[in-house]
Design a protein that fits this description.
Helix content: 25-40%
Bound molecules: phosphoric acid mono(formamide)ester
Largest sheet: 5 strands, parallel
Number of strands: 9
Strand content: 5-15%
Oligomer: single chain
CATH class of the largest domain: Alpha Beta
CATH superfamily of the largest domain: Aspartate/ornithine carbamoyltransferase
Distance between the termini: 13 Å
Strand order of the largest sheet: 7-6-5-8-9
Number of helices: 11
CATH architecture of the largest domain: 3-Layer(aba) Sandwich
């Protein structure tokens, strides 16, 4: 089975059936990471390049591990030490990398649409690992995978995404994904951090306790100071008091609610340490599942032969 597309650029363009295929394929790959020898020969002979123009811990490492567990050759380009620093454009960089005949380029860039531009110019597959405030599709897929694995379904669930919605590519991809899968998505955050007109797509609340009281899933987001052009809240302390998720706010929610966070976590700002490390938190489970989801993406885009 393959995805009938060359690239993975966003969740918005995926159908419900494609998301289901990715999630079920990821489920079949998850046990590879539990084996003593964590490797299958599925993508032997394939070459994958990680081209990250923005910092990353989880996504870059997860794509690299996923490629290696499938026996592909993974190459990481450190942009800080590349010719991008000498003024080479993204397109030229990508064309030069493609001249070495990779099968897939995984790209993260601060500009929305950068992976889409590359996908038009390159013959190799392009996977969007985060483009500006636009989309982060593999993150949303691993989030949906984690919720489905824990709760057994996505349809009919109440998902609350809270924090800096306007600057969050994770929020945008998850909004599209969970809605396509039949979940109800409510956004919560300061009005200054809500995209204009978003009420026509999702429920919007500005009171945290009211937003989370019936939630099955609460996804907390980091405040993305690096993307904010002006101060959008009075102080970090004030933000944390009103929107930070702590045990006191969580007391008013369902007893079996689950907590997600894409990372990196700002402990004590959007989430307290006791909630981040508490029994409802699936933050590290998300990271674990990211490898299986990215293995599934490589498999479905590059067409390996499964064991
Ligand atoms: N979730 C996520 O994208 O984390 P990194 O920035 O560490 O890749």
């Amino acid at each position: 089975m393959r995805l009938n597309r060359k690239d993975l650029l966003g969740i918005e363009e995926l159908s419900k059936e494609e998301i289901e295929l990715i999630l079920s394929t990821a489920a079949s790959f998850k046990e590879v990471s539990e084996r003593e020898i964590k490797k299958v020969p599925t993508l032997r002979g394939k070459t994958i390049i990680n081209l990250f123009y923005e910092a990353s811990t989880r996504t870059r490492t997860s794509f690299e591990i996923a490629a290696k567990r499938m026996s592909a050759d993974a190459v990481n380009i450190s942009v800080a030490a590349s010719s991008a620093k000498k003024g080479e454009t993204l397109k030229d960089t990508a064309k030069n990398l493609e001249a070495m005949n990779p099968d897939c380029i995984v790209v993260r860039h601060s500009s929305a649409g950068a992976p889409h531009m590359l996908a038009r110019y390159l013959k190799s597959s392009v996977i969007n690992a985060g483009d500006g405030a636009h989309e982060h599709p593999s993150q949303a897929l691993l989030d949906m995978f984690t919720v489905k694995e824990r709760l057994g379904r996505l349809e009919g669930l109440r998902i609350v995404i809270a924090g800096d919605i306007a600057h969050s590519r994770v929020a945008r991809s998850n909004m599209h994904g969970f809605k396509k899968m039949g979940a109800e998505v409510t956004l919560c955050g300061p009005p200054t951090m809500m995209p204009k007109g978003i009420e026509s797509i999702c429920g919007v609340k500005s009171d945290m306790k009211d937003a989370i009281k019936d939630a099955d899933v609460i996804m907390m987001l980091r405040i993305q100071l690096e993307r904010q052009k002006e101060a959008l809240f009075p102080s970090v302390r004030e933000y944390s008091r009103v929107y930070g998720l702590d045990n006191e706010k969580l007391n008013g929610s369902k007893k079996d609610v689950i907590i997600l966070h894409p990372g990196p976590v700002n402990r004590g700002v959007e989430i307290s340490p006791e909630v981040a490390d508490g029994p409802w938190s699936l933050i590290l489970e998300q990271v674990k599942n990211g490898v299986a989801v990215r293995m599934a993406l490589f498999y479905l885009l590059l067409g390996g032969v499964k064991e």
